User: Fold IS5/IS1182 family transposase from Spongiactinospora gelatinilytica.
Amino acid sequence: RLDQALRAARRAGYPYLIMDGTLIPIDRVAADRPYYSGKHKKLGMNIQVLAAPDGTPLWTSGSLPGSVHDLQAARIWGITRRLQSPDW
Assistant:
């Protein structure tokens, strides 16, 4: 869970976390516009990863359609809201 990963990061004393989104290509028909990523020019699913400063993955999101921008995905998963809280 995201909350558990953030608590572990706080306990570890990480000064920052790395957030990265990636597109996992999928085989779908071209009519599936929600899955089309304009950035990558292909169909796929958007996955978000939070990692420690050394790159160790701490949390991986579920998947969203490829048309969802990384920042929007971070908002959907609550990443931005949680990281803006003073307790993070």
In short: Helices lie at 2-12, 70-76, 79-84. Residues 2-84 form one domain.
